[in-house]
Amino acid sequence: MDQNQYLTFQLAGEEYAVGILRVKEIIAYGPLTTVPQAPPALRGVINLRGSVVPVIDLAVKFGLPASPLTNRTCIVILELDLNGEPTVIGIVTDAVDQVIELLDDDILPVPAFGIQARMDFLRGMGKAGAKFVLILEIEKVLTAAVSNNGAASASEPARFVAGANATIAYDEKA
Amino acid sequence: MEIDLDKILQTYAAESAEHLSKMEEALVALEADPEDDRLLEAIFRGAHTIKGNSASLGFSKLAGFAHAFEDILQRLRSQAVPVNRSRITLLLRAVDAMRQLVPQAVAGRDELAPGYMALLDELTNGGSTAQGNSTASTPPKNSVNDKTVLRRRDETQAWGEKKGTVRVDTARLDRMLNLAGEIAVAQGRLHQALPPRGISGEEAWEAHEQVERLTLGLQEEIMKLRMLSLGPTFRHYLRTVRDVAQAHGKVARLELEGEEIEVDVSVVEHLKDPLMHMIRNAIDHGIESAAQRQALGKDPCGHLTLKACHEGGNIVIQMIDDGAGLDRGRIIERARRMKILSEPEKLADSELFRLIFEPGFSTAAAVTDLSGRGVGMDVVRRNIEALRGSVAIESQLGLGTTITICLPLTLAIIEGFGVGVGNETYVLPLHAVVECLQMPSDANPHGGQGVIELRGEPLPYVRLRDWFQLPRANPRRENIVVVEVDQSRAGLAVDSLYGARQTVIKPLGKQFESLPGIAGSAILGNGRVALILDVAGLVRAVMRAHRGVLEPSRDLPALVQGFGGPSVTECR
Questions:
Q1: How many Cβ atoms sit within 10 Å of the Cβ of residue B548?
Q2: Considering the entire predicted model, what is its pTM?
Q3: What is the ipTM, given to two decimal places?
Q4: Average confidence (pLDDT) over B196-208
């Protein structure tokens, strides 16, 4: 039952959806700590009851300008399985809408053009009443390669790899 | 009434493991001090308890085994037979056996496999003869080797202390409980004193200060929960040294110093392998055979000392042996053959000896089962460096070798020094900070880097605001934090200094691994996240960015020295 439920939210003028089972909580946007020299899509980190959680701007991941901050901006905290390890991350949303139910029949393939996000980031288009929502394959988005301007590209080695390793190894080759 | 059999069995297993560990320690101590009756009593009591518990749980075979053990102890107590090496060895083997038999019985198999039956026979007979025919039924030599010893320890760990758990002193728990209670009371005072009820602002402030003090106290106690004393870990090695020495046909004893030193639980776990390797190496290659030692005028029994102490923000662990020491000539020859360096004889002792840690490096003439392949010391160095520590060797030919490990006191908590840069707060590990000073008023306010004069010497500094590309805030008077990296000093120019406090390190995740200069994160008192800077990494990145290209000839000595990570002289 639960796996047919999705949380819908707005981002860069489009309506997206993510499976409810991955959503841990939704919090108001607050002051972030920026991380110097981090990829542009990484807005910063926040303190979530003692855990340090990275916050990602998907708009930047999609190659769009950074999301503007309004009083409706929220952070959706997700718990994902990235490369076999459970990871908690937050994504910036312009506004959070509601929880809807989509059965397999309601999910249509993504059109060949007209959508800003990359095709492999989307599982499909869900029909919710009269509207369409873009269902995100959130793990794919986060493990995609990131190029220098922050937009996702296929060629460069991926830097966004999940894990909970406490010690940071200093990379001599950097 | 349902009896929870599982719980009873688990308690029995954990307690038996503890008894067996104590018996093992006492046996090794007894060998060194055969006259000590209290040791005999302790061992007897342990065996007696295990026998009783096993019998009441219906483990008759196990109880029978313990009974045979008890019998020998009885004969020793009544001095019908003397304490000697082979008898101690037999009893130690029996302890090992029981370590296997207890979990086996708990799992439902109270039986004695043929190997154990043979051991039981020995126990029943071997106690009466002076030497015992231990040679006849002694397991072949290579089974009494380090692999067995390692395995035994791992298994007892499984029953004694579950992974991811710690044993806590009840006194500590009581203190925490008291603090929590007092915090509740102080909060009540605050509640009364605040408007609209309370009138006096002073009352409210006092109550608030009390709550603050108590909360800090509670926080400290909780952080200390993670600390374990090194004693239990070190004491395990008392027997290891004895056994490994015996396996190599040598005699050696271990002495311990600094058992009461406390270290974070994660550090303890990571120390076990390196210590094991170091002991093996010391006994295999360092300590000479009893005959050789006697010929040299040394005590035929080799001495190993394991020492621990606090120094600065670190814990220093030393393994000292009075064996043959490192042969400089052999190392030079080996370095030449391995083509590591072109002129190894030019290196000072301290750097030359560091070559021991190179993978594949071994000057051993013969390769024994586990030493001599040049594997062990490489593992030691890698493990220690993974803990942000360093290893160094000192040695004198003919007199012995000392290996010194320097580790940060805890992986989870550091003394942090807060600095403000732009709108952000960063934390520097306090032990990296040498001093702080105000930026001289005549210093160039522009540019990301500069040089100032500090007591007659030039001090290069980098503006963190520029290095981190933070928005340009209005710079009031700046401050410089002087740090030492690779034995040279550098300055970090920041806006404000916030002072030192204990900081809990929070992991950042693999995404942040490739960022030079960031070592982790911490949560500030205002709830915000502050990044912990990897001072050495940061300064090196600045140096490289400045230099552009790596210069091979000048960097080689640094590379050789860099094997051990941060210089050991930092710890002294």
A1: 7
A2: 0.57
A3: 0.71
A4: 77
